[in-house]
Amino acid sequence: MKFLVDAHLPRSLCGLLKAAGHDARHTLQLPAKNLTTDKAISFLSAKEKLVVVSKDTDFYYSHLLRQEPYKLVLVRMENIGISELHKLFARNLPAIEKALTKHSLVELDRSEVRIVV
Fold it and tell me: Are 31 and 37 in contact (CB under 8 A)?
């Protein structure tokens, strides 16, 4: 899978995804870096079939209303340390991968992976 990690999440999350065999980029690697608009991220996601990983609920509503971005993993956690976030992703990545093979919107919180759409 190909992932695009949004500005609200650490760049190091890309390393975890790459170690699991995925293509992963952070918005810092885009021309406008972390100033890349949600619209531009959604366009790139559709064009390159990227799964956007974000904490931004604007993407959630955009996906429900217009199926933009292409696919979304919405991280529903406030005040989480990078180490805890990495452990949570590492532990739940198989479930996220499985969900994304058939679904386009997945939520991750401290207790579970939820399939939304």
Answer: no
CB 100 within 8 A of CB 106: yes
Q: What is the 3-state secondary structure (H, E, C) of 13-35?
A: HHHHHHHCCCEEEEHHHCCCHHH
Phi, psi of 93 (to 5 degrees): -60, -40
pLDDT tens, position by position, 83-105: 999 999 999 999 999 999 999 99
Decide if domain 2-115 falls under CATH 3.40.50.
Answer: yes
pTM of the predicted model, to two decimals? 0.96
What does the block give as tokens for 48?
Answer: 């390159």
